[in-house]
Amino acid sequence: MLENTATSKLAPETELSPQQKKLTQQALTFCAEHLASQQPGVFVIKGAAGTGKSVVLSALMATLQQARTAAQSPFYQTNNYLLVNHPEMLKTYKQIAADQPNLRKKDFMKPTPFINQMAKQATTADIVLVDEAHLLLTKSDRYNRFNQENQLTEICNHSRIVILVFDEHQVLKMKSYWNQTKLMALLAKRSYKIVQLDQQFRVHANSATQHWLTALGTKGQLLPRPADSTFDLRIFADASQMYQQLRHRDHEFGLSRLVATADFPYKLDGQTYYVIAPSFKLPWDKNMDPNITWAERPETLNEVGSIYTIQGFDLNYVAVILGPSVTYDPTAQRLKLLPDNYQDHEAFKRRADLTEPQAWQAKQQIILNSINVLLQRGRYGLYLYATDPQLRAKLLTL
Predict the structure, then answer these.
(1) CA nearest neighbour of 373 among 260, 293, 285
(2) Which of 162, 202, 233, 302 is the most exposed place for a label (fewest CB within 10 A)?
(3) Pairing state of beta strands 274-277 and 280-283?
(4) Residues 98, 230: one domain?
């Protein structure tokens, strides 16, 4: 079924799959047991893009907030929050809260205001859910008014139980640089449980196509393009032609958007900046509406979205422009990533705890992660164009 909104999956009434229902019950049991024993705990939900991590988290929040009014419930009168660093996702959760009697907008926050509020009040939350935990800061950040060293550590310090969703292949900035080792070092100090979601719900494609997307987005591998009657996967030699095809899809089915890697200049100074390719020029997203997400506004069909406006959302069709930082290594027959060409300089801010080789590797991983995020947005189709001539030629031969 084609989606009318990019966020409908997060509504509390969304039907969960058997795997999601089982995981939700595991999380509720974990919370009840740890509240009863007064033992702090962390419940980690892992899974790739599109496996329904946020869907489970939204369902959990709705269940907890309804149960907090039932005297016989283990969650009676608990003080619970859902946190997310992604501003577009926060809009979505607040929209949902406005329409649900058991949800309150004030229970949905960004991590730093939550941390500062708990510290100022010298209080502890009962259960804190963290969406997109791979976006949590792992170093201080004056711009975000976070003065400590790790947001997840601080959230745990101010919570009895933390439930978080995590995918290391969606880390997008050095200041929120996570890997499995860093996560496990933090969990080792607490009682924890890790569960995995592995069923793909967003991309309606056969297993060969899903493998093709995963190999490209997580390993940079260029595999032969599979035949798939259920998913419209196309490679384009011309960005303008790709955009016109996307406009047709939007006219037919709605919720079709163009996105690009952060390889084209952009500043938060109120000016208009463009994504440019031969015979193609469109402005970057401006994200001017404080209440409606970028993907759901009709006029954004005339803009180019970024990882920061589209991460976590579903589209019916997505067209992706791979910019100058994404090239091709003919010897290794895989993507070659060039951090010096990446224009999101904020993403690459130096950190003292990483050596130069480690930092260079982290930058390449961030670029690859951004590609992975973009590739996994479309439910029914992906259109792909590369600005690098050698990569474009290789893609067209697959």
Answers:
(1) 260
(2) 302
(3) antiparallel
(4) no
- 183 falls within a domain: yes
Which pair of structure tokens corresponds to residue 4?
């009318």
Inter-residue long-range contacts of 222-228, CB under 8 Å, 24+ positions, other chains counted:
222/328, 222/333, 222/334, 222/335, 222/394, 222/395, 222/398, 223/398, 224/398, 225/398
Q: Are residues 129 and 225 in the same domain?
A: no
Please give the model's pTM, rounded to 2 decimal places: 0.92
Cβ distance 322 to 384 under 8 Å? yes
Residue 85: strand, helix, or coil: coil
Residues 191 and 221 reside in one and the same domain: no
For the segment 259-311, what is each residue's pLDDT rounded down to a tens digit?
A: 999 999 998 888 999 999 999 999 999 867 777 889 889 999 999 999 999 98
Q: What share of the chain is helix, strand, coil (3-state, %, to 5)?
A: 40, 20, 40
Q: How far apart are CA 334 and CA 390, in angstroms?
A: 12
Residue 195: pLDDT over 90 = yes
Residue 75 CA to residue 32 CA, distance in Å, equals 7
142 and 278 inside one domain:
no
Among the candidates 150, 168, 197, a domain finishes at: 197
